[in-house]
Amino acid sequence: MRATATHLDGTTGAAREVELWLDAEAGAITGAGLHWPLDEIRVLPDIAGGDLLILRLRGDPLQRLILRDRAWLAHLPHAHRRAPVANRKRLAGMAVAAILSVLLIVFVLVPTMADQLAAYIPPEGEQALGEVTLTQIREAMDETGVSPIGFCTESQGRAALDKMAARLTDGAQLHTRIDLHVLDHPLVNAFALPGGQVVLFRGLIEAAETPEEVAAVLAHEIGHVVSRDPTRNALRSAGSIGVLGLLFGDFAGGAVVLFLTERLIEAQYSQKAEAAADRYAIDLMRGAGLPPEALADMFERFRKLGGEAEGFVAHFQAHPKLGDRIAAARAAGVGADRGAPLLSARDWQALQAICGGGARPQPSASATTSQ
Amino acid sequence: MDISTPSASMPVHYTKDGSAIFKLGFKTGLLTFATLGIYRFWQKTRIRKFIWSSTSAGGDAFEYTGTGLEKFLGFLIAIVFLAVYLGVIQMVLFYLGLSMLDQPDPFDPMSTVRFLAAFYISFFAVLPFLLYALYRARRYKMARTRWRGIRFGMDKGAWGYAFRAIGYGLLTLVTLVTLGILAPLMSFKLEKYMTDRSHYGDARFQQGGKWTGLYPALKHVLIGIGLLVLAGICGALDIPALAIIAGIVGYIWIFVGFIYYQVRSFAYLTSHKVLAGGITFDAQPRTGEVIKTYIIGGLAIGILAGIAFAILGVVVGGLTAAIGSGASIGSMIGIGLLAIAGYVVVLTLVQALGLSMITQPILAHFIETITIGNPEALNAIRQRESETGVDAEGFADALDIGGAI
Prior knowledge:
The complex is a heterodimer of chains A (371) and B (405). Chain A is α+β, with helices and mostly antiparallel strands and 371 residues long. Chain A folds into two domains: 2-75, no CATH class; 138-352, no CATH class. Chain A is built from eleven helices and ten strands. In chain A, a hairpin with a 4-residue loop joins strand 2 (16-23) and strand 3 (28-31). In chain A, helix 3 packs across helix 11. The longest helix of chain A has 34 residues, at 254-287. The radius of gyration of chain A is 35 Å and the shape is rod-shaped. Chain B has helices spanning 18-34, 40-54, 68-95, 109-143, 158-174, 183-195, 219-236, 240-271, 287-323, 329-368, 394-398, and strands at residues 9-14, 55-57, 60-64, 145-147, 150-154, 198-200, 203-207, 273-275, 279-283, 370-373. Chain B is globular and about 80 Å long. Chain B is α+β, with helices and mostly antiparallel strands. In chain B, helix 5 (158-174) runs antiparallel to helix 6 (183-195). Classes of the chains: A alpha+beta (371), B alpha+beta (405). Chains A and B meet through strand 7, helix 1, helix 2 and helix 6 of A and helix 1, helix 2, strand 3, helix 3 and helix 4 of B.
């Protein structure tokens, strides 16, 4: 087999026409001072046109043979074998370093910085952040698609709620004032936001049997406000979303990965924070002369509603096992001082009807624990 | 390979093959989705190999020798650095009460101000790296380009580039009030900075010409601005009809003027480049051709994408209706996955069509108008040392400014 080919020697800019033949005995392409063993010849991939065969020699990055006859391809045993991966160790090292540094940033640097910054964030910024987040949550939870879910502001119920909050916080040292809201939604839940915003859902107030139980949840959320957990969480999200967004770029599925990672981070973070908020709530209840075991009563009611999740699901629900929390709250109730009752029967009725009352609807079965 | 007959000038040729590049783009696009984006480094490499090999001068094709692996490695290196940097920036912004994660509230001007502040601070924090990455990406492409077996190359100087780009950018911004009159200075000086550091083999490129030579290219932008000023004057003098006409015409004029500027400044800058040994270049791209390609390609892709999405909608809708309200969760998930897969396929289709019907034709037009003067001198050029830039174009990849090719 013979052909004319173009030889690029890789040192001069002149292309040279050469006569080549296939030497089957020697197992090589030879001619004009060239000797290319067939099993060391590779074909360049993704060449446009498809009429040319551009050959290179394994281990020689520069020389090229350009053939116009693709029939030669049949004689090259390893034509499409990939080039061996150069500096494999370095590559593996960099990959590991990249993964480690991202992990380090997301799980160590960002949380540490978030903790530091949370203590120094200006109150106005925190306040604004909380308000924006609250609006977002109200819009996200709305199912009608018309307007964000509303606040419950029935005046007598509101007065009872304020009375309850005042009793709890009178003796406490707070860095910010507490902004208390009730949202008209059947979920048995409550959460705290940056800037001292505490939100109770209608479902929680209705599921509670005594005012002390509501107060216990409130105390728990105040515990989050005091340790600035919501602000810290928001700072962490900002930091890790910045990093993870970079990693996944504009890739379409990135948002899902982002969300899952974010959930994991938050859950791991909150386990400790929840326990601390429980301890704070117990102290606050004691200080106000209220029974700390009300917290346990409320937790048990959550459990009956199906709030406790096991295994994998539990990991994604940002809370320590309810059983442990109930036991801790019960233990705290032993020997605690008892003050005056928290609310009168009338006040309690008014509070339960804060959303415009009437018949008590069944609380949602899909309720989860307080955040 | 016709090097035996010397000619006064050597044309540069691009062999356009729309269906081959479409197939390559579509196949590698699907692989990129299937690998959660990791394959994009190999996708880019394969498309470049194809485009480079479609380009030839004097019958000899260009070769792209970059690899997907080195791009991936470069990306990892960039990630290590940028992850720390961006994470810290985001949190400091947050600390200042500025967050891009909050949508601005239209009824609260302060929230919009906060949003914009967060956006601009993030942007300017990343800007030096964007510019750095721009230079590095071009340097990497040069280092991995060969013609007749001889390497192109570029000297180090990415920070110098970033520094100058910010300087000229500020100057242009300051003079923006005087209708951006210094934009050609920036275009010219930055291109000169890059060209003067470029080589082909042992020969060095040089950017000739003067920055004021770019003003003719700017003329349509200036006319457009003039029309907008006229519209403003007419508005002030209470001649609404004339104001509206001048406004609309001026707006379109500026838009076309920017394309004209890009095309003509490329022509000017290329025609004033010289390679050591007296090798000259000439480029005559036509603005009309570029705009025509954009319009025809854009319309065709729009129609094809519309049809593809309509088919997808009918299939998914039909299946949902066929299963009816008594559908099991399994079949619902099945339809959902089908819809997502269909969406991904159509999206990849649109990208591949864009490559085949817009990117390649425009590239081909630019390349086809280039001719090389005094090509015999090319034979005297010798090989240069290879470069092993370790981060390839990792920063450009990480910051997503690389584009398709």
